[in-house]
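User: Second chain of the day. Same drill as before.
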Amino acid sequence: MNNLILIPARSGSTRVKDKNIRILGGKPLLAHTIENTLQANIGRVIVSTNSQEIGKVSREFGAEVPFFRPEELSTAT
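Assistant: Same format as last time:
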């Protein structure tokens, strides 16, 4: 497959601190998205993030994190 699945997951949520890596159902919230996307087997799964911690979790669950976004590209707007 030549599809590219991009999962945006920035740190710095203003309402729920570290929401992407908070545990839900025994694993980080982001892990559910990664696992379901990988299971669909429709292409490469890349997480775009500005956080080393989110990057680590993403890799642990099988996503690629080829780069980290700069902070100026990781705002709420």
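Helices lie at 29-40, 52-60.

User: Great, on to the next one.
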